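Re: WTA structure - here you go.
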Amino acid sequence: GMATGNKLRHVESLQEMPSGAGKISCLNAVILGEALASEENDLVFPSDDFARQAHVSSPQQYLEMYKRSVEDPAGFWSDIASEFYWKQKWDQPVCSENFDFRKGNISIQWFKGGLTNICYNCLDRNIESGNADKIAIYWEGNDLGVEDSLTYAQLLDRVCQLANYLKAIGVKKGDAVVIYLPMLMELPIAMLACARIGAVHSVVFAGFSSESLAQRILDCKPKVVITCNAVKRGAKAIHLKDIVDAALVDSAKNGISDFVPKYPPTCEVEWVDAEDPLFLLYTSGSTGKPKGVLHTTGGYMVYTATTFKYAFDYKPSDIYWCTADCGWITGHSYVTYGPLLNGASVVVFEGAPTYPDAGRCWDIVDKFKVTIFYTAPTLYVTRYSRKSLRVLGSVGEPINPSAWRWFFNVVGNSRCPISDTWWQTETGGFMITPLPGAWPLKPGSATFPFFGVQPVIVDEKGVEIEGECSGYLCVKSSWPGAFRTLYGDHERYETTYFKPFAGYYFTGDGCSRSNGQKIADGLHPCFRDKDGYHWLTGRVDDVINVSGHRIGTAEVESALVSHPKCAEAAVVGVEHEVKGQGIYAFITLVEGEPYSEELRKSLILTVRKQIGAFAAPDKIHWAPGLPKTRSGKIMRRILRKIASRQLDELGDTSTLAEPHVVEQLIELADR
Ligand code: WTA
């Protein structure tokens, strides 16, 4: 098994890192075993056997590659990009960017002038290299015993049939296509079919309601919406087609046709520029309106493939399963594109991980002999042996050291390294992640930046801080997988991500350099410890992550206030044992309206209808008034403390317009 504890291993001295990556050099301290009894010094080493076979098998090897990736990004990434098929190589600099709004518009370009196609690289290229009969997708249905699979050659046929159909109904290069499907094989097929003909897909998670779907349709004006009649999730049937019909009534009335796949199984590839859009994915920010995160083709392709290969130490013999839904970025980058670009066999699971019982996940792992299992920390339960596993992955929320230990000891039999991957819809792929053969892990830390990524921690003024500290997590200069704009709103892109800290991409996450350290207002930022390990501890804005589903508190609030009896709403995230974060809503009713169980239910129903069931508040807290500053700003810091019942940490309430509302709220906490 893997050795744990403060053992002296990998004792060679490490070279000093170039500027911008200087923090890494302090890894010396860990490696030479400066052991203190604390979480930060709790090291879990890869076994010799694992390290020996790994793509990157020592810190030295990582550091050499990392050094090159930041000193010579063009050389580093063009070597990797050359392993893919390009109809025509890029004729402009590998990367050009402006990250500083003071110098003009923000822009990022990678491989500009290169012509390629990501579907071709996922399918045709792997088929030509001898993988035609390798399984591309193992599909496991919601109900036991319902399953299917497709080889790479069969997957290509299906993709081409749909691509031909889309062309036949007039979809052209650059057109948007909305995909509203559950986790059927048709979902990755539809994504790939769009990519093949140069159409821009926008997958909407099938848990979103018709109103949310309509909002997205109105924003990106697709030529087509691809859906299916109904889906079973657990014991429940959900009629997706009815939801789409309702959304179309809300957004655009158009002909609805049923798809019969009688189209030929070959389809010419549309070669697109590396900077042509590949997809739009709507995600939540701190204001009400979802943002259309736009990713382009070439850089995203190279980045998702490379991060997949290294962070999971992928080998052709692996069977890979990611439990994410393709409605979220994790499903885009690490169910569909990253694995298929590597020629991997991917398990796609339609159902809920707890149906028919909590052992379902482990049944699936055993059934397909899954070797790499990538999931959110909220998945749990032990029961079966998971002998096949060799690498575990975690995403979406901070994993606390005891959950990490559980995942490591129980699921992985103390044998499988955990890649705790930190990234975002906006980043396209992993940003801070272990390379499982290279580093000793620290339970709860996402460890070090991926190749080419230069994370920095800044203070409120945007000044970079070195050494052990805490602050806001930013990134200096671009990486190939970075999003290029927010669809139709480049100004919002600049304002949200590039203006808070001039010269950097602001992630919205905090980072701190001592486990548990917090910044002033009680939010948990990210930190980097004395050894250069990064500890991500959550968002510093009003975005929350509920069971791996990203949602803005403002969106939930605007759904709640649309209820005729709700005068005002304030929503905060609270720690939730199962979901990671739960949704906690403070509600002020219109004058004279009494509290009632019925009203509580009807408020929750409003959110389910307007956003989707996953966004339904876990708790409604009646609030005769909300704590506000004299200028009328809601003090969320205080609401967060009340919601998590940390009543002795309310801090200074003297600046409130009406300090007594706090006592009122505390009294009503369990009503
Ligand atoms: C959070 C999901 C801690 C973070 C891929 C980020 C994490 C947000 C981790 C993005 C992790 C993601 N440790 N926090 N390993 N991974 N997050 O866009 O707050 O749905 O900003 O992308 O999830 O959520 P999104």
